[in-house]
Amino acid sequence: MAATSKSTVLLKAVKKITIQFCPFESNVRSTREFLALVGSAKARSTNMNCEVISVVKHDKSEPVIDITYVDGERLVMKGERLTCREMLSAFQSRCKDKDPQNSIASKR
């Protein structure tokens, strides 16, 4: 997790993040690391209106991350076979595409 925490997580374009997992399964490590990154005080300070919801289940369900952006688009990642770095990369590439400041800078 130390390598992924160096990059800054920006939640400007995000409305809600719901993270569901069963903590007793062996395949939830990357999902929990992703939750720690987006739930940190530094990341939350980039968008105080973003809801970060963790749903802890005990039903042996696979870990799922459901991200809703401010424009209504959703990104659903099934964390069973993804690393934290892969999830963070997919998440941040979408956030950069949706960030209004990046689109203004690219038009110049």
Automatic annotation (TrEMBL):
Protein keywords: Mitochondrion, Ribonucleoprotein, Ribosomal protein, Transit peptide
Pfam families linked to this entry: MRP_L53 (PF10780)
Keyword Coiled coil: no
Subcellular location: Mitochondrion
Chief place of localization: mitochondrion
Record has Phosphoprotein as a keyword: no
Protein family (similarity comment): Belongs to the mitochondrion-specific ribosomal protein mL53 family.
The protein's name: Large ribosomal subunit protein mL53
Organism name: Poecilia formosa (Amazon molly)
